[in-house]
Amino acid sequence: MKEKLEQMRAEALAALSDRGLDPETLRIRYLGKKGELTALLRSMGELPPEERPAAGQAVNALRVMIEEGIEKAKKERAAASLEKKLSAEKIDVTLPAPAASGALHPLTAVQRELEDIFCGMGFEVAEGPEVEYDYYNFVALNIPEDHPARDTQDTFYITDKILLRSQTSPVQVRTMEKKKPPIRMISPGRVYRSDAVDATHSPLFHQLEGLVVDRGVTMGDLKGTLEIFAKQLFGEDTRIRFRPHHFPFTEPSAEVDASCFACGGKGCRVCKGEGWIEILGAGMVHPFVLSNCGIDTDVYSGFAFGLGVERIAMLRYKIDDMRLLYENDVRFLSQF
Ligand code: DAH
Fold it and tell me: Does 250 lie in the same domain as 142?
């Protein structure tokens, strides 16, 4: 019995230190129902009674040793496999990223292009607050309370007197309050209207406002300026036309079309067969607006215009759904 035990202990030690052996296989081999140690325990009954206690103790000690050895081997295996998994999944943050270069968002690109064109003609860029007073957004622009023009600009009000600007025109007023003529400024920026989202509407969009005030500014100056602008934006062959319109802050007012850059005016899908594409609103600054800003209308006159940046971007890049501009889908953006 003693010899058997000694032999089994030696074998078990060797087997336990062999990292290649599965601990579960060892458990079955020694401690399972038909295991070697289990068989030894069973054979205890054959020993003379006086030898049983000592033999029992020895067998038990061996059992404890084997159990602990198996437990330890299991833990080591688990730790090793975790270690292996971790190192396989390790991310080396110092590796260079796959080459994907960033680019300007089409709206930013178009806004900068517009700024470049007007700055090239001597305009300065002005900014104004997006949270604006009703006074600057409407009243000073000759749109008093109850004026029907307020209905067409579904405005987000914050209080009775404070709103999210529905147009960039208030920057005209702020500029004229601060500066003496000559004034030549453009003001690009966000505007807000409570419109439902669809292919051509968004509650947040961008406009670019233009204003020129000086002695003897005429409608001819407006036409010349916008013609140069349209040619630079859409190409040398572009022509423009004025259609009579009404804006409260300009008199006379016009909507301005450019000849279609896609078909040259013959009529195509881009211009919906018209040959012309509406690009902006404009007019001579209304004398009320000038005098609201403390500018002497006997000495000075001015023109103004306002355009939608999304509209220009959509024309320029042939985008037919405005929502694409705000969804930030890389598959769309990476085309620019
Ligand atoms: N503020 C006008 C709008 O949002 C656009 C506009 C039209 C601005 C004519 C102007 C202008 O300065 O002269 O519809």
Answer: yes
